[in-house]
Write a structure and sequence with these properties.
heterodimer, A: 116 residues, mainly beta, 6-stranded mixed beta sheet, 4-stranded antiparallel beta sheet, 12 strands, 0% helix, globular, B: 117 residues, 11 strands
Chain lengths: 116, 117
């Protein structure tokens, strides 16, 4: 069965620090997708990125970057020069495309607090 | 672009009452999903529709829960005989099955927060 583990429950940093959020996943499927979502205090889940299992290229989008490593089943998320607006709960999620299932399996989330 | 909308945003009910929530997906999306999120946890999958067909249901969806998507557009989630354990945020998401970069990326609505007294 699929599983997503976010071992960091809460992280607190000071503005302008870099921070990395860890995500480790388990799946028997060879074709799957990995996602990161942001949930600010308002509550709405905001899509950040999707990665296919066959594409291990790292991705950078502004201050955000993602490191996907199949060898360690990890999909880590780094925020460079963090800002107060980055304060939120971040969720990593997995869907198993090969099985035809569409459900997302989420981790338990990492709460990031960025202090001014 | 209009995102996913949900109504109501908040619902307070007494134990034993029935409640119904509505979700309007992004207009061109043919897939619709329901999730439940309790405090401090990630969302948990409940059910999924492709057009009007309900294709997948989680074991979390007890027989007190029913979801419909009659015309393949909006969806409703009904909970009968609510229990205090049903208190949670109910999230709706939608996606498109059309080929492309964003195929099957799920976009979420603001959620309906249910409190059962």
């Amino acid at each position: 069965a699929q599983k997503v583990t976010q071992a960091q429950t809460e992280i607190s940093v000071v503005e302008k620090e870099d921070v990395t959020l860890d995500c480790v996943y388990e799946t028997r499927d060879t074709t799957y997708y990995l996602f990161w979502y942001k949930q600010p205090p308002s509550g709405e889940l905001v899509f950040l990125i999707r990665r296919n299992s066959f594409d291990e290229q790292n991705e950078i989008s502004g201050r955000y970057s993602w490191n996907f490593q199949k060898s360690t089943s990890s999909f880590n998320f780094t925020i460079t020069a963090s800002q107060v607006v980055d304060s939120a709960v971040y969720f990593c999620a997995l869907s198993e495309a090969g099985t035809g299932r569409r459900a997302l399996t989420f981790g338990s989330g990492t709460r990031l607090q960025v202090q001014p | 672009d209009t995102g996913v909308s949900q109504d109501p945003r908040h619902k307070i009910t007494k134990r034993g009452q029935n409640v119904t929530f509505r979700c309007d997906p992004i207009s061109e999306h043919n897939r619709l999903y329901w999730y439940r999120q309790t405090l401090g946890q990630g969302p948990e999958f409940l059910t999924y529709f492709q057009n009007e067909a309900q294709l997948e249901k989680s074991r979390l969806l007890s027989d007190r829960f029913s979801a419909e998507r009659p015309k393949g557009s909006f969806s409703t989630l009904e909970i009968q005989r609510t229990e205090q354990g049903d208190s949670a945020m109910y999230l709706c998401a939608s996606s498109s099955s059309l080929a492309g970069i964003r195929t099957d990326t799920q976009y979420f609505g603001p959620g309906t927060r249910l409190t059962v007294l």
